[in-house]
């Protein structure tokens, strides 16, 4: 009788643990979808303000939980991911437009050009101007006869 009671207790505890585990998976799945949508939105609105507290509030979670979920899902911190998005967009603009460096910085969401220069150089290893100058001009891409 005692053994049966102990076995039922263990069984009930395992069932409760599995139930709570399933709830956590469903919550995380919901957050994963929300974070993927958020990341896509960020990529399309780099000039807008993006902060951990703003986005954590949107998801109704704490700042630290937001940062943990974001890093876990994307393998990079929120802040570093945002910086990389901005720099990658700057690269595209440097390659495809003749906008000034200051205009590109602004288009990428930077209000301070010096801050843009520092982050660009830290990630790319060169300044935005040197990066642009290293891009082959279209006339150099045409094969000579």
Output the number of helix runs. Answer: 8
Order of helical and strand elements: HHHHHHHH
Q: Find the count of extended strands (DSSP E, 2+ residues).
A: 0
Helix/strand/pairing category:
mainly alpha
Radius of gyration: 24 Å
Share of helix, binned: over 70%
Mean pLDDT: 86
Shape: elongated
How would you characterize the largest beta sheet?
A: none
Could you characterize what this model shows?
With 145 residues, this protein is mostly helical. 77% of the residues lie in helices and 0% in strands. The chain has eight helices and no strands. α2 crosses α3. It is elongated and about 85 Å long. It starts with a helix and ends with a helix.
Structural features:
145 residues, mainly alpha, 77% helix
Q: How do the helices and strands line up, and which of them pair or pack?
A:
Blueprint (H helix, E strand, L loop, with lengths): L1 H43 L7 H8 L3 H12 L3 H19 L4 H7 L5 H12 L3 H6 L4 H4 L4
Helix pairs in contact: 2-3
Summarize it.
The chain is mostly helical and 145 residues long. The protein is built from 8 helices and no strands.
